[in-house]
Write a structure and sequence with these properties.
Elements: E1 19-20, E2 28-29, E3 37-44, H1 49-60, E4 70-76, H2 79-83, E5 94-98, H3 103-108, E6 122-126, E7 132-137, H4 143-153, E8 171-173, H5 179-190, E9 195-196, E10 199-203, E11 206-210, E12 216-217, E13 219-222, H6 226-248, E14 254-256, E15 259-264, E16 270-274, E17 287-292, E18 298-299, E19 302-303, E20 311-312, E21 319-323, E22 328-330, E23 333-335, E24 337-341, E25 344-346, H7 348-357
Parallel strand pairs: 3-4, 4-5
Antiparallel strand pairs: 1-2, 3-6, 6-7, 8-21, 9-13, 10-11, 12-16, 13-15, 14-25, 15-24, 16-22, 17-21, 17-24, 17-25, 18-23, 19-20, 19-22
């Protein structure tokens, strides 16, 4: 056992992201569950005394785990936990990862980073921004459960997990488009040619377009009129580019895709939490731009779960700019239609990265977001 090194997560450190098979999904992307407190329980095997005590703690405090304020993620290393049904997910709020190869346990320090060594059962508590709040190793006297219960009972509201009301690092830019330009873009959309679009995923090393109405429901129109494209570029260059330069000291040089999207209440338009730059084919996207072309709708607000439950809805012609790596969602449109202009912005270095990674794009990926 000499020389074995276990990862030690420190307070405030960003939690490692991973994708892992779970009790509910063939591949669960852990980073999209930000926005609530997360309790990861590396119990190893449910049949062990420590694992049994941990699951008893879960049942005793079942009401805490509602997928709104808090969620529980068990991490099992024992295939018998799955086949026997001893461990299972329970909605809302209780999920299970099947970590039979130990990959997640190594990321978090329950197993050595390399080599063979004993499993160290433990609790890892994360705040809604996916930062480490506490690491508690199992103890035979149950003192870890006492400490965990006391910690979870005194957590502040999700909206104030940083000690005050949280706000997303977004830029709101007024007067990007005037009424006439907004109406022109909506008219082009309504004239025909709009198509339902999917979203990007990395599958076997390729960036592919995936369609899943539970995750995203939106129809898009691609602007191809060169004169209109020049107008859009001119307005973004005059209003949005200086705002990004001022706030982020970043010089935008390129705008990708001239797209009018529509979230329609009749079809339940929405977009579940996602990030815009997590595949090789989308890694170049530095900023996302969302310009509302109308405001006579209900729902359809932008939310950034890592920074609390607050949502953002700007008036017609105004824009929200945010980093491509931020987890974000569009709430369900409940009345009318939300029309928006939705390009991505980046610089010359990112443009070169896009060119380099273009070989990983599947043929149909260009139509997705």
């Amino acid at each position: 056992m000499d020389g074995l090194r276990y990862r030690k997560l420190s307070l405030g450190e960003p939690a490692p992201w991973f994708q892992q098979r779970s009790s509910s999904r063939a591949m669960f992307a852990f980073d999209v569950v930000a926005g609530r407190y997360l309790v990861l329980c590396f119990f190893g095997r449910a049949r062990d005394p420590g694992g049994g005590a941990a699951l008893d703690f879960l049942q005793a405090h079942r009401a805490w785990f509602d997928d709104v304020r808090m969620s529980f993620f068990g991490v099992s290393s024992d295939p018998d936990d799955e086949t026997s049904g001893r461990v299972r997910h329970s909605m809302p709020g209780v999920w299970q990862f099947w970590d039979f190869d130990g990959g997640v346990a190594r990321l978090y320090g329950a197993l050595p980073e390399s080599g063979e060594g004993p499993y160290r059962p433990m609790w890892v508590v994360l705040n809604p921004g996916l930062q480490v709040l506490a690491v508690l190793h199992f103890r035979s006297d149950g003192s870890d459960l006492e400490a965990l219960g006391a910690l979870l009972a005194r957590l502040p509201p999700v909206s104030h997990y940083g000690g005050l009301e949280m706000h997303a690092p977004v830029i709101i830019v007024p007067e990007v488009f005037d009424r006439a330009l907004c109406e022109l873009l909506i008219g082009r959309y309504e004239a025909g040619g709009a198509q339902p679009t999917g979203f990007m995923l990395e599958v076997e090393g390729r960036t592919v377009a995936v369609h899943d109405a539970h995750h995203k429901k939106r129809t898009d129109y691609i602007v191809e009129d060169t004169g209109l494209i020049a107008t859009l570029q001119r307005r973004v260059r005059a209003t949005v580019v200086p705002a990004i330069q001022k706030a982020h000291c970043f010089q935008v040089t390129t705008m990708e895709r001239f797209l009018v999207g529509c979230y329609d209440s009749d079809s339940g338009g929405h977009f579940a939490p996602h990030r815009d730059n997590t595949t090789r084919g989308t890694a170049h996207r530095r900023f996302a731009l969302s310009v509302n072309l109308n405001d006579d709708f209900e729902g359809g607000a932008l939310g950034f779960p890592e920074y609390g439950p607050r949502t953002y809805k700007v008036p017609r012609g105004n824009a929200i700019v945010f980093g491509g790596g931020l987890l974000h969602r569009v709430t369900k449109v409940t009345r009318g239609r939300r029309y928006a202009f939705l390009p991505f912005l980046y610089d010359d270095a990112a443009a070169a990265l896009r060119e380099e990674n273009s070989r990983y794009l599947a043929p149909d990926a260009g139509a997705a977001t």
